[in-house]
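Input/output pair, single chain:
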Amino acid sequence: MRMRPLWPSADPSAFSDWRILADDLAQFLDQQGLPPLIGIGHSMGATTTLRLALRQPERFQLLVLIDPVIFPPLTGIAWDIIFRLGLAYRLHPLVKGALRRRTCFESNSAMFANYREKAVFRRMNDEGLRAYVDALACQDPEGQIQLCYPADWEARIYVTGIRADLELWLQLPRLLPPVLFLRGAMSDTFYPKTARMVQRRLKTARITTISDSTHLVPLEKPDLVYKEIIQFLSEGE
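Output:
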């Protein structure tokens, strides 16, 4: 499934919060005619999967949510006010970088070399970074490499991300499928405080922290993430 920001005709200005991503996922699963699944997602994909599982738990056998984007309830309420006041693009710390990001490269190799120098990717080995670059790179008609993910969509995803988080917190105690949360020890989207709040509301949840990793934990520590997932699934059998 290609998420909404990768749809050719999708308009970021019409995107107001992440709840619609769960609608998209439900529609995709209906189109595929799939039976109850093991749902595994990272970041926005993890939060989207969680939202759908809260609405329609019968779609999932188990959930593995890798560093989901979830903030404490009061943070989400405050951010919703900021968004409504029209200040979100000015105040969100990631928006300016997203809108200034270089989007065109001569080749995948040039993009890889550029990213290899960035501090944010220093915990990825070359194999993980190449996988990341290959997923991001699209060739334009002139043979240049463009970022598949448009900058205006990236910024829109940032400013709308936690507006509807209060809904998640209210529904979380009723989550039915068994769930494993995997978080990077240095995550900036699923803080230790948030993990503790999740555990209090959903005592059956398993929350595991992967050391020396950030929000990009599945690319930084793929072997450890794989090990934790397989162990959780084997117990679920």
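The chain is about 50% helix and 15% strand. The two ends are 26 Å apart (CA to CA).
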